[in-house]
Amino acid sequence: MLLNLKFDSKKIMYYTMLKKKIYFIINPVSGQGRQNVFEKIIPEFLDLSKYEYYISYTSESGEATKLSRNAAEKGDCDIAVAVGGDGSINEVAKGLVNTNIPLGIIPCGTGNGLANYLGIPFNFKKALNIINAANVRSIDTATVNEKLFISIAGVGFDAFVAKKFSKIKTREFWAYLNIVIREYPRYKPEEYIIEINNTIIKTKALFVSFANSNQFGFNATISPSATINDGLIDVCIFNKAPLIEAPVLAQLLFFRAIDKSRHMEIIKASEVKLIQPHNDYIHIDGEPVKLGEELNIKVKPLSLNVIVPF
Ligand SMILES: [Mg+2]
């Protein structure tokens, strides 16, 4: 009897030691703020027989990278989960790239481009069930002048809109759409020089996007054939179309057929150089930044592990 008891307590210790440690990094200001009830929901739906967990809330830009990098370097977690939007995922992923620690995603952003592409649902219970199942897949990441992006980066109109959107408080689709409708008629396309696959292209484009996933966010598909593990970036060059075509273009975007538009050219490459006429804002996973006139985009094949649905 005594022997059995001893065996059981060891067994319990053994299983406790086997529990994986999850680190939830929550951005409290992503999207519409629904992540602020997430902490209460975790014990209800996370499989606590497999996992133990701890949580940090970020309070400033860049903090999520420091937290995930620190945890990965110290071996403090087996999985790091970004609770937020594409910008938050970008920050957490920066600390995990080229490590074995997988990234989990609880989508709480505005556009949720990467989560949409990977099929990770908005519902907390379903998203936690995907983490419970822990199916890991390696994906490509990419850099613009050494700055990491996971989903999409770009110059031109979408970067201009991202900058305007970052200044307003309402993080909703309708606010984003409102900026697009207001600014589109008066936006003047810039001339870009693009060096790609040993060819130089000079183009006056509305925007040039570099797609690692296929998603702009809001389920708008910028490059329907883009895949996140082929070692290639889809360079999407879009020329300004007359306003009258806007409803058709919107349909093509939301029905995964924008590559059929005569205004769109898509070229796949592992390395691209783009020169813009001024040091304008570009966006990296939706966040506006200035990185100079010359932009060098490179793919880092299969450099990030992510937990995805089966
Ligand atoms: Mg690709």
The second-level CATH architecture of the largest domain is Sandwich
What is the CATH class of the largest domain?
A: Mainly Beta
Order of helices and strands: HEHEHEHEHHEEEHHEEEEEEHEEEEE
Head-to-tail CA distance between termini: 44 Å
β-strand percent reads: 25-35%
For the secondary structure, the number of strands is 18
Helix-strand category: alpha+beta
Number of individual domains: 2
* Bound ions, cofactors and other small molecules, one mention each: magnesium ion
The CATH topology of the largest domain comes to Tumour Suppressor Smad4
Taking Cα atoms only, what radius of gyration do you get, to the nearest Å?
Answer: 21 Å
The gross shape turns out to be globular
**Could you report the average pLDDT, rounded to the nearest whole number?**
91
> Taking strands numbered 1, 2, ... along the chain, how are they ordered across the largest sheet?
6-5-18-15-8-9
Which segments are poorly predicted (pLDDT under 50) over 5 or more consecutive residues?
A: 1-5
Summed up, the helix count is 9
**What percent of residues adopt helix (DSSP H or I)?**
25-40%
Structure commentary:
This protein is an alpha+beta fold and 310 residues long. It folds into two domains: 2-134, 3-Layer(aba) Sandwich (Rossmann fold); 147-301, Tumour Suppressor Smad4 (Sandwich). The chain has nine helices and 18 strands. It has helices spanning 2-18, 38-45, 63-74, 86-94, 113-118, 124-133, 157-166, 173-183, 246-254, and strands at 20-26, 51-57, 79-84, 103-107, 136-144, 147-149, 152-156, 190-196, 199-205, 207-211, 215-217, 220-221, 233-238, 264-269, 271-275, 281-284, 287-290, 294-307. The strands form four sheets. A six-stranded antiparallel β-sheet has the order 6-5-18-15-8-9, covered by helices on one side. The chain has a six-stranded antiparallel β-sheet with strand order 14-13-10-7-16-17. Strands 2-1-3-4 form a four-stranded parallel β-sheet, sandwiched between helices. Helix 2 (38-45) packs across helix 6 and helix 7 packs across helix 8. The longest helix has 17 residues, at 2-18. The radius of gyration is 21 Å and the shape is globular. 41% of the residues are buried. Bound molecules: magnesium ion. Magnesium ion is lined by residues 140, 212, 226-228, 230, 232-233.
